[in-house]
Amino acid sequence: QVQMKETGPGLVQTTQTLSVTCTVSGFSLTSYGVHWVRQAPGKGLEWMGIIWGDGSTNYNSALKSRLSISRDTSKSQVFLTMNSLQTDDTAVYYCAEETEGLDYWGQGVMVTVSS
Amino acid sequence: DVVMTQTPPSLSVAIGQSVSISCKSSQSLVYSDGKTYLHWLLQSPGQSPKLLIYQVSNLGSGVPDRFSGTGSQKDFTLKISRVEAEDLGVYYCVQATHFPLTFGSGTKLEIK
To answer: Residue A106 burial by CB count (10 A; 0-12/13-18/19+): exposed, middle or buried?
Structure first.
């Protein structure tokens, strides 16, 4: 079955760079896309971007200048990198597999940005 | 960006009742391939979101048929028949027709 698991640093300083990894199983990254979605504490969901099965990407224009999504298909991992962090980037970061529509989600990783 | 307006913001219902949640988009969600990429998610307390309905009316894997979705163009509805205790949480609609994907603000379902 499909499984997604996010891992990340937990705490990052302002102006620094965030790196979060999504490790997947049960499907091939060359066949299906993986989204990144985040949720600030007590808030709704914000779509960040997607890496498709062919390796192409789409980003939320609000984050595009700071955001990069990449992958290592041999390790079944997808990477989110975001620079110039601010306190309002504090959120739970989720990866989600795209078959029909954000079908499977990881448990998320909480990232706190502190000055 | 497409704005998704979801109502009501909260609901309180008794077990066994039926409820409906509305989601309206600021643009048509019909894609050039003729499909409509409007999905519904449920985020149970302390959990990550789960796909309930994809492309307006298709049940996600393992989702009971008490859940149903209808709608077209810019106006969509999620209906839950015979609400059960496990249905509590926050329901989100999300459009995936236009980039960036955008979510409704959520509807919190509470059990009386």
So the answer is: buried
